[in-house]
Amino acid sequence: MPIEIPKDKWPGSVKKVTLGATTAEGGTRSRSVTVGGQTTLPYLLFEAPTPNKPVVAIEIKSHKPDDWSPLLGEVWGDAMNDPAQWAKKAEEAGADIIVLALTLADSPEDAVKAVKSVLGATGLPLIVWGPGQAEKDNDLLVPIAEATKGEKIMLGICEDKNYRTIVATAMANGHVVQARTPMDVNLAKQLNILITDMGLPADRVIMDPTTGALGYGIEYGYSVMERLRLAALQGDGMTQLPMLVTPGFEAWKAKESKVGEGVPEAWGDWKARAIHWETLTAMALVESGADIIVLRHPESVKRVKDAVEELVAA
Amino acid sequence: MALSGIQIYKMLPQTNCKECGFPTCLAFAMKLAAKQVELSACPYVSDASKKQLAESAAPPIRLVTLKAGTEVKAGNEVVMFRHEKTFYNKPGVFIRVKASDADAAKKVAAADAYKVNYVGMDFVIDGFAVEADGGDFVGAVKAVRDATKRPLILIAKDVALLDSALSLLAGESALIYSADASNYEAFADVAKKHKASLVVTGDSLDALADLTQKIQAKGVEDIVLDLGGKNLSEWLQRSTQARRLAIKSNFRALGYPVIFFAGQNGAAKEPVYAAQAISKYAGFVVLDTFTPELAYALLVLRENIYTDPQKPIQVQPGIYEINSPKPESPVLITTNFSITYFAVANEVEGSGLPAWLVVCDAEGMSVLTAWAAGKFDAERIAKAIKSFNVADKVSKKRVVLPGHVAVLSGELEAELPDWEIRVGPREAVDLPGFMKQALN
Ligand code: SF4
Predict the structure, then answer these.
(1) Number of Cβ atoms within 10 Å of the Cβ of B134
(2) N or C, fewer C-beta in 10 Å, chain B?
(3) Does B262 share its domain with B385?
C-alpha cells in the first residue's frame, strides 16, 4: 500500500506585492517584479507550486562606500563611483531589483539626482534605502518619493520611529514601503498594523524582519521568519506579507567576509570564505521563506539564483 | 508519538486494584504519561498493551550512533521547526575519498587535523567516507583508518569487499552504504555481523519504507535513509515528507536519520546543497570537497541551526582585548548575550580602534532585555569592573555605557566614584564613530 504523504492545507496565504511600474502602469520600468502569493511553506511543491519565485536584489550606494570589503571593491571597480554605472553592472550581474542605499552625506537634491540617474540607467524596479537614521531618512525619502511618483519604488527603511512620514508619502505617490522590525514576530505584526491602519493597502508593504549573518545570530532571524510564515498560513492577516532579507549587508559586516588578514588560519581562503558567508546566510533565509534577497557580490548572486531555480522547478 | 494519560489509561486493566501503589489506574496512567513511573509496576498489563506502550515510548526517529575513536549521533529528533523545541543531534559532517585516490589517506589526515574555534567552541570534521571505485578498497580503508580515529562510512557494491574492510574495524560501529531492493539480504547480514549501521537507498519513500521493514526483520535496527532526489527541490520535499511521516504520523518505517551527499551535482553546488541539508533535517552530510573555509562556514551554520532557542549561546563574562588595547584605550561595557557581544566586538574590531571590552554577566540577555529584567544594573557593572581588575589595565579610568542604559550612569558614578562614566551610542554600529569623535 503506498504511503500517504501528510499534506498541510492552510487557511491563509501570503499577499502578492509588486515592485516597479512599467510605462503602461504609469512608471518607466521595463518590467515589474511580483513576490509573495505562497499558499504553503517554502518550496513544498507536493502541496502547492511556488507562485512567485524569490528574487535577488543587488545593493549599490549613492557614494563609493569607504567601509566595504576590498573584495567588493575588486568586483565593482570604478562603477562604485557612479550609481548609474553601478546599477548597470548590477543588472548585468543578474539583479532582479536594484537597491540604492543613500548615505548621511547626501543632500535631498543629491539623493533625488542619484535615484533619477539609477532609474535612467536600468529598467529594473528600484528599492531606495535612507541612511538609516529616522530623521535623515525622512528628509531624503520624501522628496525622492515625490520625484518618482508612479514608479512604484520601495521606500526603506520604514520603522516604528518614522513610519508615519514614509507611509504618507508612499500613499501619496504610489510607492511600496519596507517595514523593518528587529527580529521579533510581535513587533513585525505591530508595525504592519500601524502601517495599514494609516490606509496603505497591505499589498504595498514588504516586511523586513531583520536577520543576523551566519555566526552572528542568523538562527534568530531564521526562526522569526519561519514563525511569521507559519502565522501567515494559519491566517494571521498582519503577517501575510512577503519578506525581504539583507544577507549581503549582514554577511559583509562580519569579520569572516570583511577582512583577510589577522584571522585564524582555520578560516581558510578569504575570498572563497566571504562568498560562502554571504551565500550560506542567504540560503538559510531562502529556506525559511525570504522573498527578496539583497546581496552584494555577483558570485553570491549567481549561486543563490541557481539554488532558487532548482527549488522552484517542478 | 507520546501518548496522553487518558490514552494510556484505556490500555490498563481499569480495576483500580492499587498494587502499583496508586489509588486508581488513571492516577498510574498519568504518572506513566509524565514518565515518572515504570510500566512494570503494574503486574496486570496485557502483552498487547505492553507492546503498544513500548512502541509509543520509542523516539519517532531512531538514534543511530557511529563509533570509532570518536562518536557521531544522528536522529532522536522530535520537531519540524527548531522554534518548536530544538533540533538535538547535529548532522555529522563527513568527507568522502575514493579508494583509487593515491592521496586519499593524505587528504583524510589533513581534514582530520582540522580544528576551528567559534564562540569558544572547537569544531572538527566528524568522520570520513571511503568509496570503492576499482582501486584497493581494503587497503584504502586501512590507510584511512591509520590516518584518523573518527567513524567511517564504507561505500561499496560488493558485499565481500565490505566484509573484509569491516573486519579491519573491529569494535567500531561503521556505516555501510548501501542496501537496495536487489541486495539487502546480503547487506543486512554483513551489517549484523559487524554491528554496523546500514544505509538504504530507494527511488521513492514507498520503496524505502518497504526495505527498512525487510531489513529490520533480518535483525538490523540501525538504519539510515538515502532519500535520493536529483536536485535541491526533490531532496527538500522528500526530506520534509520523511520527517513529517516519522514525527507527525508516527510512521516507524521511515523513522530513521537521513544521509545526504552534497557533492552529487558538482563542487560548485556543494556549499548550498550542504547548507540545505543542514537546515532541513539531514543526520549525516557527506562532502566531496574539504577546504577550511567551507568547513568553517558549514560547521557554524550547523551550530546556529542546532542552538537551543531556549538557551542562546552565551559568551564568557570577562575583559576582552580588541585590536591590542593600550592602557589609555577606552573601556566599553556590554552584556554576555552572544549576539550583543559579537555586534559590539565586530564593529570595534572592524574599525581598527583598540578597546577593552568588559562583558558583564547578564544571564545571556541583550542590553535592553537584561536591563528590563534587572540583570544589567549599576551594581553588576561595577562588580564586573572590579572583579576583572580593569583598573589595573588602564591609565584612564573611564567607562562607556551602552546608550540604551544611559539611565544607569548616575548610579554607576556612585558605585565607581573614581571612574568617569560616559554614555555611548545605542547601537553597536555607531561605536566606531563615537570612539573617534567623543573619546579623544
Ligand atoms: S496495578 Fe495496574 S490494575 Fe492495579 S491499579 Fe495499578 S494500574 Fe490499575
Answers:
(1) 8
(2) C
(3) no
Instruction: Tell whether ligand 1 has an atom less than 6 A from the beta carbon of residue B28.
Output: yes
**Cell numbers found for residue B42:** 503494574
Interchain contact B244–A (C-beta under 8 A): yes
Closest residue on chain B to A267 (Cα): B293
Distance from CA of B233 to the nearest CA of A (A): 4
How distant is the Cα of B105 from the closest Cα of chain A, in angstroms?
A: 20
Domain, as residue range, for B44: 5-57
For A18-312, give the CATH class: alpha beta
Ligand 1, from B9, B11, B18: best to mutate by most atoms within 8 Å of Cβ?
B18
Say yes or no: B259 and B362 in one domain.
no
Question: ipTM score of the complex?
Answer: 0.97
What one-character-per-residue DSSP string does A25-87 give?
Answer: GTS-BS--EEEE--SSSTT-TTT---SS--EEEEEEESS--SSS-HHHHHHHGGGGG-HHHHH
Q: Please indicate, yes or no, whether residues B90 and B197 belong to a single structural domain of this protein.
A: yes
**Structure confidence at residue B2 (pLDDT):** 66
* Averaged pLDDT, groups of 10, chain A, 314 residues long: 90 98 96 98 96 97 94 97 98 98 96 98 98 90 97 94 95 97 90 97 96 89 96 97 97 88 91 98 98 98 97 87
Kindly give, in sequence order, each residue whose CB lies less than 8 Å from that of residue B166, ignoring residues fewer than 6 positions away.
B154, B174, B176, B190, B193, B194, B196
Residue B230 in domain: yes
The x, y and z cell numbers of residue B60, run together, are 519517532
Q: What digits encode the pLDDT tens for the residues A46-56? A: 999 999 999 99
pLDDT band at B440 (very low <50, low <70, confident <90, very high): low
Pure H helices in chain A: 70-76, 83-92, 108-121, 134-147, 163-173, 185-197, 218-234, 247-253, 255-258, 270-287, 298-312
> Which sequence spans correspond to the domains of chain A?
18-312
- Closest-approach residue (CA) in chain A for B252: A3
Pairing outcome for strands B355-360 and B318-322: antiparallel
Residues A198-231 as b/e (b if ≥16 CB within 10 A, e otherwise) read eebeebbbbbbbbbbbbbbbbbbbbbbbbbbbbb
B374 lines ligand 1 (CB under 6 A): no
Do the domain assignments include residue B313?
no
**What is d(CA A282, CA A295) in angstroms, rounded to the nearest whole number?**
8
Same domain, B87 and B44: no
Model confidence pLDDT, tens digit, residues A79-111: 999 999 999 999 999 999 999 999 999 999 999
B228 in a domain, yes or no?
Answer: yes
CATH of the domain at B37: 1.10.15.40
pLDDT for B339 beyond 90: no
Residue A1: what pLDDT?
A: 65
Phi, psi of A233 (to 5 degrees): -70, -30
With contacts defined as CB-CB under 8 Å, which chain B residues touch A269? 291-293
- What confidence tens digit (pLDDT) does each residue in B147-159 have? 999 999 999 999 9
Binding-face residues of B in 273-312 toward A, CB within 8 A: 275-276, 279-280, 291-298, 300-301, 304-305, 307, 309
The response to whether residue B44 sits with its C-beta less than 6 Å from ligand 1 reads: yes
3-class DSSP state for residue B28?
helix
| Interchain contact, B339 vs A5, CB within 8 Å | no
| Pairwise CB contact (< 8 Å): B350 & A269 | no
What's the rounded Cα separation, in Å, for the pair B61 and B74?
Answer: 9
Contact B209 A3 (CB under 8 A): yes
Q: Which residues of B touch A256 (CB under 8 A)?
A: 296-297
pLDDT at A257: 92
What pLDDT, on the 0 to 100 scale, is given for residue B272?
98
pTM score, whole prediction: 0.87
Per the structure, how many domains does chain B have? 3
The CATH number assigned to the domain holding B424 equals: 3.40.50.11600
